[in-house]
Amino acid sequence: MKIAITGAAGFIGRNLVSVLAEQKHTVLAIDNEFRASFESLKAKRNIKKITADVLEQKELNALLKGCDAVYHLAAINGTENFYNIPEKVLEVGLIGTYNVLQSVLNHNIKNFFFASSSEVYNDARKIPTPEDIPCIVPDILNPRFSYGGSKICGELLTINLLRNTDVRYVIFRPHNVYGPEMGFEHVIPQLVMKLASQLSGHNVGSKMKLNIEGNGKQTRSFIFITDAIKAIILSTIGSSYSGVIHIGTEDEITIKLLAKETIKCFGVKADLTFTDSKPGGPNRRCPDTKQLKKLGFKNRTILRTGLNETVSWYKDCLLYTSDAADE
Fold it and tell me: Which of 48, 189, 208, 323 is the most exposed place for a label (fewest CB within 10 A)?
């Protein structure tokens, strides 16, 4: 198959490109590199890296001609971005998604796969959360919901622009995908950075401090990147599934316990302290994954294994950056 992926330089995008290329598909990796880079995406004959913007309709339309499937992952993620540049988050989320869908229709591309988000639920009224729970924006004045709101609009665009066409679509909602090279805006790398910054002055046997935003009782359910990619491919080109589906696990864990597990990866002792959280963050998040399991998906990576690999990568990355700065 000839497959185009927007947002291909991002965390999920890069990994998806690599696996699809390994499966012998021809992959057009499209990204404007606003938040990420193609640098770590290994070159292969069947991968074509293309620097382009989903906001540029004419260029995008030319690129997607002849594709069998399109994965639309382009978005501006990262909680800080939701608060700081909500107008850009919405521009990419709404106009970019509309542009991609128009190109899909223009070229009669048979498969469209939209990366939505668990953010569409905010604080879901049911845990584990099934796919048919209402999507909401609880406060239009809070810029945090620029992202969740844009994903809800993206789902509406997908469903209604493709209604009464022969284009098969899958809307997949990832829940806390983690792993090496996931960026620095998410909870796990932020915990690692806080601990790593104290290592140089740390005395053996003494306790470090780890500051947690919130009271530590908030929960999330994490899925390691390799498992997430398998789940995405299984629910898209790996099956005939159509509709909305969760990408994640039902292994709910508190942020406090996550912090303790991260500390164990460092092999140190640390006291936890807590601060007020920004308004709008959900208290609990855990997907119902019955639909995914029906397709035959089995999660292979337990949190401790994935966390060790992730923490190890970030420690090496931060150490290398520190050493380079000292030269």
Answer: 323
Other Cβ atoms less than 10 A from the Cβ of 278: the count is 13
Note the pLDDT tens digit of each residue in 117-139: 999 999 999 999 999 999 999 99
Task: For residues 262 and 23, give the distance between their C-alpha atoms in angstroms, rounded to a whole number.
Answer: 34
CA-to-CA dists, residue 15 to 22, 38, 41, 242, angstroms? 11, 11, 8, 23
Cβ-proximal residues to 92 (8 Å cutoff; 6+ apart), any chain: 54, 55, 74, 75, 76, 150
Beta strands at 69-72 and 269-275: parallel, antiparallel or unpaired: unpaired
Tokens of 325: 């700065």
Nearest to 116 by CA among 152, 92, 168, 89: 152
Q: Which amino acid belongs to residue 127?
A: I
d(CA 134, CA 295): 24
For 49-84, what is each residue's pLDDT tens digit?
Answer: 999 999 999 999 999 999 999 999 999 998 889 999
| The one-letter amino acid at 112 | F
Return phi, psi of residue 157, to 5°.
-60, -45
Whole-angstrom CA distances from 230 to 23, 235, 256, 288, 292 are 12, 9, 29, 17, 11
Torsion sign (Cα): 214, 315, 36, 250:
negative
* C-alpha–C-alpha distance, residues 219 and 257, integer Å: 9
Burial class of residue 296 in the structure, from the number of CB atoms within 10 Å of its CB (0-12 exposed, 13-18 middle, 19+ buried)? exposed
* Among 315, 311, 312, 304, residue whose Cα is nearest residue 199: 315
Strand order in the sheet with 168-174: 47-51, 26-31, 2-6, 69-72, 111-115, 168-174, 243-247
Instruction: Note the helical H segments in the chain.
Output: 11-22, 57-63, 79-84, 86-90, 97-106, 145-161, 187-199, 225-235, 255-266, 290-294, 303-326
Number of H helices and E strands in the chain, helices first, is: 11, 13
CA dihedral for 199, 204, 206, 212, sign (positive or negative):
positive
CA distance 171 to 183: 24
